Structure formats: C-alpha cells, structure tokens
C-alpha cells in the first residue's frame, strides 16, 4: 500500500506564505506612500509655491525610493548570495518596515520647515533600500523550493503579495475617506496607514524566522564557496542577462503605477470623488490577482517567456486606449479600463518570479534578479507618474497611454533577447 503524496502547495505552505507576506508588505508600504503622495504629501511637506510644483515634488520623493532600490539590491544581493536567503530577507523586511513606520511620526513643513522634506527623503531612501533586497529573496525562497513543473506557480506566490498589499492599503484609505473629513485626513488621518504597517511587518518576521534555507542555495554552497563579490562576478559574466532582465520588468511597473498613483492623482481633475475612485481601484485590483494566477498556471504548461512576451504585447495595445478610457467621463468605463490594465499587468508580473531566476546561476542569482527587478522598476515605475503627468499637461490624458506602449515594447525586446543571452 503506497503512501499518499502530499500536495506541493500543502507541503511547502510555510515557504509560500513567507514569500507572499514579504511582498504583500512591500506593495502595501509602497502603495500607501503612492496614495499619500497623490493626496497630501505635496501640500504637507513642501512650500506653497504652486499646486503643480507640490505635486511634482511629491512624485519626486516617490521616485527617490526607486533610486535607492538598486543600491539595496546590490547590498542585500551580496549577503543573500554569500550568507543565505533567510537572514537577508529578515534584515530587508526590518529596514523596510522601520522606515515606513517612522514616516507616520514626521513633522510637516509648517512645523519644521525644510527639515521635514529632508527627513521624508531619508526615510524614503531607507524604504527603497530595504525593498531592493525584498522581492528577489522572496521569489527565490519560493522558486528554489519548487517541485519540478511547479516553478511558475510557486514563483507567482510572492507576486500575489501585490494585490493583497494593494487591497489592504486601498481598503484602509477608502475607510478613512468615508470616516474622516478632508480636513481631518490631511491633519492626521494620513498617518494611520503608516502606523498600521507595523502589524504586517511583525507578521512577516514571525513567519520568516521559522523557515530554513532554500535547497538550491544549500546545494550551491556545498558544491563551491560563494563568490567574494557577487556583483563583480555578475557584471563580468552576465551583463546581457542583467540588461534583458531589467527590460523584462518595465511593463508591469508602468501599468501598476499609471493605474494606481497617476490615475488617483488625476481623478479629481476628471470629476470623480476620492471615495468613488478608490472603490473603483479596489474592485479592479481583483483583476490583477486573476492575471497573476492565470500567468502562473499558463507558464507551467507552456513557458514563462511566452506568457511574459504575450503580456508585453498586450501592454503595447492597451497603451493606445488607456488614456481615452480613463478620461471617458463614465465611471463604469474607467473601472473596465483599470481592470483590463491590471489583468494585463498580472500577465507581465506573474511570470517574473520564475523567469528572472532562469537568467542567472545560483551563486549570483539573488544579486542578479534583484538588480534586474529594481533597475527595471526605475524605468517603469519611478518615471511613470512623472512622465504621465507631463504627457497629460502637454497633450491631455489621452496621450498618457503612450508611455505604456513604449514600456511594453521594451519588455518584449527583453524577453526576445534573453534566451540568446543565457
């Protein structure tokens, strides 16, 4: 009588939860700041020169964390490849969580003058620095423990942290929008989501401290000592893979931040209340989760490159209608536009956890995928709200989607070139 085999998901449940919680915290932290930057950061932390200047300065602090992410990717990637995935993941989560929590206690410009934006920038850099090592380690935790044939589905587990983090962040802001007056929200209500992040961080630490090292990393360490300087080995031996990996990440970040940060910041100009638009984004978020799940199953049955390439091509097409749908004046059509966009994002984001590790060998894999992911995030995420605002001011909201078309083309090129670079 043969013993019944344990289902792979049940067998590795703790590993999958540990990888998902970290990226859930990552997207929660980033989205609460993205929402705050769209709503209150400009007026609270910068001098009242003009509303446009305050908005652009707020988005610049938003982009600062993206600049810090590659620096964090190199630092945490170094230790992740040299001493292991687990301890590095714990450290990145602690730094990320502490930086987010401290933002809740910052003085405003009216209280502290130029010190206020300076402190904000320091904490944003710390947040981005911690995030630089988070996603890569969480993805490897899942993929390097995946049974054969389950790599894409396991790689999609940390990606599901994005809609979960978005759900908590967006839902909390929606509750605050109904519970507080605009004056109360601006005065102190915006601090609550930053305070609440500590709960998620403590949960993530509790789960991660109970897991072990990945099987692939243990095997690599037993076979040969780790490189003394992983980033040096990476640049010397795999420069093309780094470039292709960065390109492969651009589309998903461009869609996410145009559909969330930019769309919310322009919702008032388009005639929608903050409550109604947050509710629309909350509903559309479920399409992102659906896209990630579809991508994971589809990629295990075909290939991660095929699914990612399809998502990139659809991003190019979607960019042609995104701006018009957003500016349609009909909230149901706006909901459809955001839902389609976030579903397409799921097709470009879901495969990344399994696709990027195929570009790099185990001894430099943490460094490689972290640099590629966070470098691509600068191009697709940090530039997206700023470029979209400029395009909207220059030619109207209908032109905003052109950034998505370009981003999709960049990702498609990265996918096409990557097999020849491996």
Keywords:
81% helix; 19 helices; 0% strand; 422 residues; Growth Hormone, Chain: A; mainly alpha
Terminal Cα span: 45 Å
Structural class of the helices, strands and pairings?
mainly alpha
Low-confidence stretches: none
- Order of SSEs: HHHHHHHHHHHHHHHHHHH
User: How does CATH name the architecture?
Assistant: Up-down Bundle
Would you mind describing this structure in some detail?
The protein has a single domain (9-421), classed as Growth Hormone, Chain: A (Up-down Bundle), CATH 1.20.1250. Helix 2 (13-45) packs parallel to helix 7, helix 3 packs across helix 6 (115-143) and helix 8 runs antiparallel to helix 14. By secondary structure, the protein is an all-alpha fold. It starts with 7 loop residues before the first helix and ends with a helix. The chain has helices spanning 8-11, 13-45, 51-82, 85-103, 109-112, 115-143, 151-159, 161-179, 182-187, 192-208, 215-223, 230-237, 239-267, 274-301, 304-326, 331-349, 352-355, 365-395, 402-421.
